[in-house]
Amino acid sequence: MFSLENIVRPNVLKMKAYSSARDEFKGTASVFVDANENNLGSLAGERYNRYPDPHQKKLKERIAVIKGISPKQIFLGNGSDEAIDLLFRMVCRPGQDSMLHLPPTYGMYEVSANLNEVQLDAVQLTPDFQIPVLEVLRNVKDTTKLIFVCSPNNPTGNLIEPESIETLLDNFDGLVVVDEAYIDFADAPSWTTRLAEYPNLVVLQTFSKAWGMAGLRLGMAFASEEIIALFDKIKPPYNINEATQELALKALDQTEQLAYMIEEIVQEREMLSDALPTLEAVEKVYPSDANFLLVRVKEANRLYNYLLEQGIVVRNRSSLSGCEGCLRISIGTINENQQLFQAISNFR
């Protein structure tokens, strides 16, 4: 049976979080000389001489309304990568514990495992990029603290069958982390709607994809209040800067425009998915629930280099097990997609 106390590192349970100047002061004031800031102002603009809200209260309140959960179930990180790294620091003892991931998948799970000296166990996805659930459970050890499931998966683009994730959640006593960076492009509910059912569920999302804010580096983790409290305990005190918080709040006022962008990207994805298989160089276009396509081609390395010569950059994923001969192609503008199609059609 899952118990948070049984999987969190003992030193994390015992430690005290850093208390910043903004944590210790409550109320209103007109003179702030407590945080060693430059009170003369900032060359970057108004308010940037002050430290940002360390808990991003306004931003979390707005996100909570959109997601239909409590602000206390939200952690905001410097990209989803910060949340991934903090999960390792939270529950995995260096040199002792392990994690399990499902390649081909997002490479930062492996990077964070190596950085934190956590043993990396892997179970390959099936040929149709689904979870071999029984094999995963057979590979779970007493030291396994984390299982990462990317859905829609990167680089394959497909949603993972919900029944498989449910089975992992029901039968694994560690944390199941469902990375939903691309969920806005999928016709499926988010796993944030299941948080009340599963105390061992952590859901990752981001502002980098559908929201078009990759340059701001703002990621989200959703989980029980107890897990989020641990995130807040071990994070850097001011991990989300003031400019990012302001611009994210501005973006959250434009959900109608977000819907239009998602619709256009999905339409272009389907058009490109239908058109590419007609080209001689293309062998297969895999079904996608994301804002990219995984495309198997006849000569991946030659085509990749040819596209570079045409000024078109795609991602060569042919070195990954399960993605041999494949390029990952992000959905661009109508004009960019037309240029890509024409370039591949001219490839000999």
From TrEMBL:
Belongs to the class-II pyridoxal-phosphate-dependent aminotransferase family. Histidinol-phosphate aminotransferase subfamily. Pfam families: Aminotran_1_2. The gene is hisC. The keyword Ligase does not apply. Residues 34-344 form the Aminotransferase class I/classII large domain. This is Histidinol-phosphate aminotransferase. PROSITE patterns: AA_TRANSFER_CLASS_2 (PS00599). Coiled coil: none annotated. Transmembrane segments: none annotated. The modification N6-(pyridoxal phosphate)lysine is found at residue 209. SUPFAM superfamilies: PLP-dependent transferases. Pathway: Amino-acid biosynthesis; L-histidine biosynthesis; L-histidine from 5-phospho-alpha-D-ribose 1-diphosphate: step 7/9; Lipid metabolism. Its EC number is 2.6.1.9. Homodimer. It catalyses: L-histidinol phosphate + 2-oxoglutarate = 3-(imidazol-4-yl)-2-oxopropyl phosphate + L-glutamate. GO terms for biological process: L-histidine biosynthetic process. Its cofactor is pyridoxal 5'-phosphate. One of its GO terms (molecular function) is histidinol-phosphate transaminase activity. Keywords: Amino-acid biosynthesis, Aminotransferase, Histidine biosynthesis, Pyridoxal phosphate, Transferase. It comes from Pontibacter virosus.
